[in-house]
């Protein structure tokens, strides 16, 4: 990757009509392989600028720019793109500040409720898209859709990194036969349902709050999928705590806002919650044990407890309880 002086030179070239860029402030956050900087200019500008430097290590990294334009076209609040240098793999985007939904986690529910509702309003624009009506060109711009193969990949990610790598359990043995069958039933069922578009990593640190409005970030993984996957990602986010009553209130609010049947949505929500929490546990185990990011391990106990509750809440999922051990 370019060093700081090279990045400043690239910035001056990419933003020739802006005041001279003078400083870079590194932003350290999350488990991404990308680098983020807050830019300082020699005089004030009408909007702040964040510089994102990406690599090709992940296939979704270069999809950030087309995803931004797609979401903006759907009416979703996302940062503006000021410039993109594909050769240098640098993107200059609007600085929306550093206050995310996660920052409100200790606030009373009366304060958080409208912020969560604003967040759900934004993502509902994505969910309203009929994925079956998308063109071949549309699909090519996005990551692989949530089909049976992708659900299976997520499940294997969980089995490899959490169940085997972190917990030391071998799921190839006969005692896990029913669990393996349940995983197959889960992915087949989810893959059979009609899809909209999903954010894919819809959690509290990927929503910025500015003047009471919600702005989505880190959405380069947008793809066809189930709205309930995003809902489970947000409402069961291991980074924050929501009560059962608060989750139920938000689900009911979303169903009313989008005109969906709450009972049918809730069942799919539970199934997607199992899928999402398994993926999250695989990620926490992989990041902490293999990618030198040990702080992610602190989220494992909460995710395990929430996944256990989800498993117990649906007949299809109870056979998966042995994957979590005693």
Automatic annotation (TrEMBL):
Stored Pfam families: APH
- Location of the Aminoglycoside phosphotransferase domain: 29-260
Read off the SUPFAM superfamilies from this record.
Answer: Protein kinase-like (PK-like) (SSF56112)
InterPro entries documented for this protein:
Aminoglycoside_PTrfase, Kinase-like_dom_sf
| Name of the protein in its database record | Aminoglycoside phosphotransferase domain-containing protein
What is the scientific name of the source organism? Answer: Roseimicrobium gellanilyticum
